[in-house]
Write a structure and sequence with these properties.
Number of strands of chain A: 18
Distance between the termini of chain A: 15 Å
Largest sheet of chain A: 7 strands, antiparallel
CATH architecture of the largest domain in chain A: 2-Layer Sandwich
Cofactor (chains A, B): FAD
Shape of chain A: globular
Oligomer: homodimer
CATH topology of the largest domain in chain A: Uridine Diphospho-n-acetylenolpyruvylglucosamine Reductase, domain 3
Strand order of the largest sheet of chain A: 15-12-14-13-17-18-16
Protein name (chains A, B): FAD-binding oxidoreductase
Number of domains of chain A: 4
Organism (chains A, B): Agathobaculum butyriciproducens
Number of helices of chain A: 15
GO molecular function, one term (chains A, B): FAD binding
Mean pLDDT of chain A: 95
InterPro entries (chains A, B): FAD-bd_oxidored_4_C (IPR004113), FAD-bd_PCMH (IPR016166), FAD-bd_PCMH-like_sf (IPR036318), FAD-bd_PCMH_sub1 (IPR016167), FAD-bd_PCMH_sub2 (IPR016169), FAD-linked_Oxase-like_C (IPR016164), FAD-linked_OxidoTrans_Type4 (IPR051914), Oxid_FAD_bind_N (IPR006094)
Strand content of chain A: 15-25%
Structural class of chain A: alpha+beta
Helix content of chain A: 25-40%
Chain lengths: 462, 462
């Protein structure tokens, strides 16, 4: 079905929030990586729930595909319009609607950026714990992929901070799920079904988020180890000791070296084979007690040093290297970002397997990530390969990597979502019955499959 | 469709795990309250996933209603068989299947009792934080109602400790959802949809639960206030101060008096109008620091005393009264248990409203509960009313109480579930679109509506 200009103009009053066909900038036809581009008939910048609902109702009545979009920082192709139709962008819906100090909640529109939300609440003595690496991502997007990030070890992931949502279903129905109450045992949890659903079931229009009081202090510690296995094994001991770290990241020395040359910061102890980077937050006495607790454990478990980063500048420098890893890789070559998650008991095994795969395949795979929760980030590097070779070799290697992760009881994505780039591996490794149930739900809620069709778990026809 | 003895005997090998019609003990036809009784053609005690699957497949093929059942401690009628058919009891499936110290997870069968799980892990230096009042409830039941309990303020509810599930769908399909990995952004979260679904979508056969290291120490504090409003308002201040209490309970003096005479324990400061009972856990230095932090806040906010319960015996006595409240009420009269949850900013308003309703209606309503999360327990007392008067007056008063809770942004149940006894209020107060989506999912996953039909959110026909 063709998109009618007139119909959309009737829903979106401002001309400048409605673009058609060849006037749609290329960036809106892709994701953050820009490796693949789709096509679309219209791009709509919605400003309200009513507009979102109007567009979805129109699209649904006319079986027009819709691709929802926030800040466009997605890494797995979720924002690529595969079948033409309408790109429904909510990035203009970026206001704070309410701060409620009594219930420690904030209500924001889905297009608000994570960094803006963090700044807004921290200026007011409050704290939004989820901390995905991409701070220019939108909150709606964070919820749609159940984003994780650095502080997940202590605080959990985005799911744990969503108290309520307003969403619009494929047919335009506006639904409010959850609310300011803390507990809920009242009917099916539609809220939890929607979180992480990658825009396949609904478009988020309001986000009611749980906040915490801002921690009094935050201190990071850099712990060098002779090798990665020793470092990661020590993490299990640390996690079992009630020392309550906020973040536990791991980096191999070769990976740090990349980040160093990109960022200009040098890590101490360049003789280390790997580093564990920890953060602790809370009241000062508690933080100090936990730092000493972990010092003993780390040194007893093979750490070759234990460097408490007391100054904020020093900590910022060390984290800067961690934050720059992906950009450091991308500065030299195209890369495929992977965020496989395995049970933490298998993190070291999985990274060792990746090192072997790298050696046997000749394809560079740079591993780092969240040691505290088994979420391993890989940058699989294209280097000088031509397009065809790159695609073929990448696919072969990824088939093996995902199969290994699933054999350890892991899953394809810890925080990026499945989208289209991980979909072949996710579909291959997921039990048919699970896929069937997911698709039954999809088809029940969006019978015409207008919303983000053929992404993530969606298989089969309409 | 009639239940075939032979068909069930083909699935369940032991004769003593299969009872028919008049041989079914009355307790299996009701819930923990025993006020209402259903009928059933067969009672099956399943021992394995295969048996559960076999029974469900048989029932589904023959459109026979199935009522799943665990320990039978449900308070809202979820375990009452409304339409005959089969009672599928999993209480014999009560083993620990695996303790995995590296991932800090335990896998248990659904019939395991909460108290047995708590004892099992605590003996091993581990900790299962969810702590619903009914310790003889089953883990499968806890998951089916997303049970909460005393420690939810710091640790969250059952949902937050379910890493994975094995379930059997209405047609007998065995599904594994979630796993030992910590994060998951891979397709729809069927796990979270199933948690809290009150046996309407599937029967749980295995529970993979997240554990924490056991806290070093636990200390309770009793804080008397002149009146309830002052006490509850002080809780908001305490929660915003990063003092991290594990439990925050509130009790009016008149409620404590009931518990005292039932349990034989006397509370200090009988001149108080209300008490806040707090617990702190963690490392000793941290617990002590938080106790002193809250002491200042409480005394600045109207507390008339601050009694740290240093001895375990003293703390046990004080908690014994809190734990005995429901039994204290039931010793004198039948009662309707209510567990409405409102945004914490409205807890005091809601309790005040209940006091007014009690005064105007002449029906005793005993309020206490979880001040830290707005989860208000009410015992609505029958006293000398005849059956008809009791039912009518209860219904009239509850319609008002639920309407008021929803007007504050609350919901019908924080932890007990909806079942049949809260269903009229839940259906009345929940938006039609939300009910429609829940029912669409139900019908998509259980087209013949064999599983726990017409309970909780389920409306309309098959």
């Amino acid at each position: 079905m063709e998109v009618s200009k007139q119909a959309l103009q009737n829903i979106i009053s401002d001309e400048d929030r409605l673009l058609f066909a060849e006037n749609i900038p290329a960036e809106y036809l892709s994701d953050a990586l820009g490796r693949r581009t789709g096509t679309a008939d219209a791009l709509v910048f919605a400003r309200s729930t009513e507009e979102v609902s109007g567009v979805l109702r129109y699209a649904n009545e006319n079986a027009i595909p819709v691709t929802p979009r926030g800040a466009g920082t997605n890494l797995v192709g979720s924002t690529i319009p595969l079948f033409g139709g309408i790109i429904l962008d909510v990035s203009h819906m970026n206001r704070v609607l309410e701060l409620d100090r009594d219930t420690m909640t904030v209500t924001v529109e889905p297009g608000m950026l994570l960094k803006d939300l963090q700044a807004y609440v921290e200026e007011r003595g409050l704290f939004y714990p989820p901390d995905p690496g991409e701070k220019a991502s939108s909150i709606g997007g964070n919820i749609s992929t159940n984003a994780g990030g650095m502080r997940a070890v202590k605080y959990g992931v985005t799911r744990d901070y969503v108290r309520g949502l307003e969403v619009v279903l494929a047919d335009g129905t506006v639904l409010k799920v959850g609310g300011k109450q803390v507990k809920d045992a009242s009917g099916l949890s539609l809220k939890h079904l929607l979180i992480g659903s990658e825009g396949t079931l609904a478009v988020i229009t309001k986000c009611l988020l749980r906040l915490l009081p801002k921690p009094e202090t935050t201190v990071s510690v850099l712990v060098p180890f002779a090798d990665l296995g020793t470092g990661i094994r020590s993490v299990l001991t640390i996690l079992q000791a009630n020392a309550n770290p906020t973040a536990v990241e791991f980096m191999e020395r070769k990976v740090v070296a990349l980040g160093e040359s990109f960022s200009g910061v040098q890590y101490p102890r360049p003789d280390a084979g790997s580093y564990i980077l920890l953060t602790f937050d809370g009241h000062e006495s508690e933080v100090n007690a936990n730092i000493e607790r972990v010092r003993r454990l780390a040194l007893d478990n093979g750490a070759i040093d234990y460097i408490v980063l007391r100054s904020a500048e020093q900590a910022a420098d060390i984290w800067k290297v961690r934050g720059a890893l992906v950009m450091a890789v991308e500065a030299v070559s195209e890369q495929e970002p992977v965020d496989i998650v395995v049970p933490i008991s298998h993190t070291a095994d999985f990274v060792r397997y990746i090192n072997e795969l790298e050696a046997s395949s000749g394809m560079r795979m740079i591993a780092f990530g969240h040691a505290g929760d088994g979420n391993v980030h890989l940058c699989v590097v294209r280097d000088g390969r031509d397009q065809q070779t790159w695609e073929r070799e990448l696919h072969d290697n990824m088939e093996q990597a995902y199969a290994k992760a699933y054999s350890y009881g892991g899953v394809a994505s810890g925080e990026h979502g499945i989208g289209i780039s991980k979909r072949p591996y996710f579909l291959r490794e997921t039990a048919e019955d699970n896929l069937a149930v997911m698709n039954t739900i999809k088809t029940a809620l969006d019978p015409k499959h207008t919303l983000n069709d053929q992404k993530s778990y969606i298989v089969g026809g309409k």
